[in-house]
């Protein structure tokens, strides 16, 4: 098992990617501490992933609150004795639109959550990670590189985090803390499934037709699932990636090649 004996903190555990990352980490032998704003999501994930409660803990966490971030990081050490990896899934991605005519004040929640919130969470984890090395994993977005859906604020915030990852990789490298980014494209899970169903209804076609249209741009011919992205996260958190830092890996079925 790739994460045997490690403790992983995952922010943003809801019904989608965060839960898949937590489940994949437990499957690979890790203890997992989950954070999210809604306790009902955390409890549901904990009960599903490890009904015994032996290898899963959680703390209600809004990453815009520094004290809540510190509590989440400390929970890993208090419960399991260490913090070996932090996976930053929590994000605000529901603001749509471009720039012309937009009130930029509407960008505040996106920027505060995705940039400042993620960096607050990392600040809380750094003292623990420095003790014996480890990994920080960002979740990026293909939208940063390939505008498809009009989400300029979200794409810009994720691009800023990729830049931050380079500086963090250099800053934390001497402590054997690695910093990398997993970049999904379309990711089959609750959010994309909802988008496909909504678009199909608007266009008067079947969801399968919309789904096939998306997959047609992917050489592998299939939309990656949340679990595929989670597997890439597990790799970056594991010792198999011990000499990889400041890098991004695209889980896109080849839709964007770099």
Walk me through what this model shows:
With 258 residues, the protein is an alpha/beta fold. The chain has 2 domains: 7-186 and 225-250, 3-Layer(aba) Sandwich (Rossmann fold); 188-223, no CATH class. Helix content is 45%, strand content 15%. It has 8 helices and 7 strands, in the order E-H-E-H-E-H-E-H-E-H-E-H-H-H-E. Helix 4 links the parallel strand 4 and strand 5 (134-139). The longest helix is centred in the middle third of the chain and has 22 residues, at 108-129. The mean pLDDT is 93.
The CATH homologous superfamily of the largest domain is named NAD(P)-binding Rossmann-like Domain
Q: State the helicity in percent bands.
A: 40-55%
Q: Tell me the major beta sheet.
A: 7 strands, parallel
The CATH class of the largest domain, by name, is Alpha Beta
Strand % is 15-25%
**Count of DSSP strands:** 7
């Amino acid at each position: 098992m790739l994460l045997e004996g490690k403790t992983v903190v995952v922010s943003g555990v809801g019904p989608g990617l965060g839960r898949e990352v937590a489940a994949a980490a437990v499957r690979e032998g890790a203890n997992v501490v989950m954070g999210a704003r809604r306790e009902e999501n955390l409890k549901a994930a904990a009960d599903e992933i490890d009904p015994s409660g032996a290898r899963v803990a959680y703390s209600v966490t809004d990453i815009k609150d520094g004290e809540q971030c510190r509590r989440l990081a400390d929970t890993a050490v208090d419960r399991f004795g260490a913090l070996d990896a932090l996976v930053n899934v929590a994000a605000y991605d529901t603001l749509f639109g471009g720039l012309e005519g937009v009130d930029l004040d509407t960008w505040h929640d996106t920027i505060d959550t995705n940039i400042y919130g993620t960096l607050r969470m990392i600040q809380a984890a750094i003292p623990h990670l420095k003790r014996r090395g480890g990994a920080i994993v960002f979740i990026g977005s293909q939208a940063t590189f390939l505008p498809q859906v009009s989400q300029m604020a979200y794409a810009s915030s994720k691009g800023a985090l990729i830049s931050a990852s380079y500086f963090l990789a250099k800053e934390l490298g001497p402590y054997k803390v690695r910093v990398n980014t997993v970049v999904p494209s379309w990711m089959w899970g609750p959010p994309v499934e909802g988008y496909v169903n909504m678009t199909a209804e608007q266009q008067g076609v079947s969801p399968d037709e919309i789904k096939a249209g998306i997959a047609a741009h992917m050489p592998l011919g299939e939309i990656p699932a949340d679990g595929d992205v989670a597997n890439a996260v597990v790799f970056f958190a594991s010792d198999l990636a011990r000499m990889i830092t400041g890098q991004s890996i695209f889980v896109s079925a080849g839709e964007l090649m770099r």
